[in-house]
Write a structure and sequence with these properties.
five-stranded parallel beta sheet; 19% strand; 14 strands; 3 domains; Rossmann fold; alpha/beta; globular; seven-stranded mixed beta sheet; Heat Shock Protein 90
Amino acid sequence: EYATNIQSAGKTLLTLINSILDFSKIEDGKMEIVPVRYETIAFIDDLVNMISEKAKKKSLEFKTEIDSSLPQSLYGDDLRIRQIVTNILTNAVKYTHKGSVTLQISGVVLDADTFELQVRVSDTGIGIREEDMGKLFQSFQRLDEERNHDIEGTGLGIAIVQKLLGMMDSRLEVASTYGKGSEFSFRLTQKIIDRNPIGDYNERHLKRLDESANNQYLTAAGAKVLAVDDNDMNLKVISGLLKRNKIFPDLAESGQQGIELVKKNFYHVIFMDNMMPVMSGVETLKKMRAENILSDKTKVIMLTASAIAGMRETYLREGFDDYLSKPIEVSELEKILEKHLPAELVAFESDTQPAPIEPAPIEQPPIEDDEPVGEDEFSKREKKIFATTCPDIDLEIALKYCMDSKSFYVQMLTTFVDIKRAEKIQAAFESADVKNYQILVHALKSTSLSIGATALSERILPQSVVDFA
């Protein structure tokens, strides 16, 4: 119970800090609007998945009314729009104690290339007093404080919403009846990328919930995928993870190798590391575009261990379609695949027996155990022995990145301890080759976390800066 309370308090504090940082960025003119292509269904899915759990915890009904004629793909800053709608929905759930919260998304075609996206959130919550309406958009203002003293928040959520909408030439409209509920709405002009309609969203969402309940995972046997990374362990990780999805990627160990493969082959998706010697991921993508060898149907995803605030915008400005944090989590990888692969290639299969990973065979001594486990799983006794003999390795963390596969984990561990890697780092350090030293050490941040060496992963980047100070 104490651990849960600490975790909850930590999440609340993080939310408060992020709100204050966002507001400061906007006030200082450092917040940017970065329009990109986005898939409408994936955008709505994120909102629904995020808020439905919060509503469920408060025994509220969460309703969706999604226009089936919405275009499949639009062009706009989906990250900021998602932040806007999330803030409104979170407030609606926060100030509604019984009844429902409803998300309505519709729109109208303005011309051949332009769509007006219309979003409306209504609730049966406590409502807003007429005399408080003027305070709604003021910074650090919490309405009806006496009644709402037990509700956490900074009073910045709606102020941030209004400022972000203002940056996109829109504004938030509010209608409320005190004691009965509120309605928040806005309109945004977006460019149309794919005008085909999304169809019945509710039917599709129910189908996905059913797939989730049956532990189904994504497969895309016909997908053409390329992974570009100078780190052999990272290449083994992503190719191992993709086998479950029936995807067998081409692998390139440098930007130049990636360019040569793109010249010869079409790819639906390219996963690209940035921190590579000779030619970085950003430089590689620019060269591909300059040489006009990249299909406009190819999506290029940045693989990065630098998952810090603002990096997404940086990579999108450089021309990437999305980014994925390392170490790679299976669920996030599948979200990227579903979002960027053609719908006709994507299917779902039962996860009762995961697809084999087929690493090199590894001999394991027989261990008596107190419970039966699968052939490719660590038993409780093995985990206990592991914890005793390797106290600096968090096996549970590692298995999260290895699909709970014992053989896959041992393969990753074997690759990680390759003596050549240590020799390269030592050589770069001794020759004061700062660029390659930082690239090699940076790669260790995600790979060390992949094998569960969390303390090492946390130390790496600060230490690599100090080493040459």
